[in-house]
Protein: Integrase family protein
Organism: Crinalium epipsammum PCC 9333
Amino acid sequence: MKVQRVRIPNSDRITWTVLDDNYFPIRPIEQFISYLESIERSPNTVRSYVHHLKLYWEYLADTSRDWTQVGLSELADFVAWLRNPQPGTTSMQEQESKRTEATVNAVITSVCMLYDFQERLGVVENIPLYRTTMQPGRRYKSFLHHINKSKPVRTKLIKLKEPKRIPKTLATEQVKQLIDVCERIRDKFLIALLYESGIRIGQALGLRHEDIRSWDNLICIVPRENNANGARAKTRNTNNIHVSQELMGLYTEYLLKEFDDIDSDYVFVNLWDGVIGRPMKYGAVADLFERLSKKTGIHARPHMLRHTHATELIRSGWDAAHVQKRLGHAQVQTVLNTYTHLTNEDMKTAYQDYLNKRDK
């Protein structure tokens, strides 16, 4: 059983499917993936679902179960199968789980969505996936919360409790060090852009020169489906990001000294490696961060700069709704759950402020 990458004939579109041991597509998965593509789910999302469902079909094959004849106990057994480093064996000693709680929950979500889809088609019936409860408490309450709070909501019956994870961030000095060791202005601009704007790497790689309004210190994030480098904005809405004049100055320097007469409307293009003038791909950025990490000894990845930007905004007193808008999140709750964390240094600073005010 394997995940197969597929290129759609007469187009640049890429999709994925799961092949059984005889190299035939597994029909229930194939139907579900076609549905996801018809509602325009991103290729990365589709790929994740395919890999998750491959695991589920491997479990069904290992346990000789029919995918249409499962119940709560079988789904719970699947969770144990995912967590056990050596399925089919019982260890007398404590072992580290093969997959994290978050990974297992993501796999279960994919399986639930497959069954939801197949239930609508009438292929399966009464698979026990959910329970109905009243709306759970949330830290952020919307304007109409008093109306919606009494409405029942569906929650998954099987879900592991995930430990609270604080997003990895960088100190300001570390970001400056990463920028300083860059040998190219293009790379300096990319690092500075990710740090100062908080945009995703896919949004940066999809930027066109027409999206940057240097006279107004404004960057417009425009979702596009046809980026030649496969970059995805991960949003369907445009978003305007205000940046500093210094960042725009770095962009101008990049255009004058390195971009020069390159004929491309993409901002970040290959200038020394690969096909010159072609837009940079994710792999090129990964290689850049790997080189910077080796030079500085700092473990850095593009998304860490987004986390760093959001965390600094929260600590400086920005309202969560403003941070949500700047980052392009659909829900304020995402910002509250992800970035409103306190470190030991935060607690020390807050307590020192308290002492200073008390002693005045």
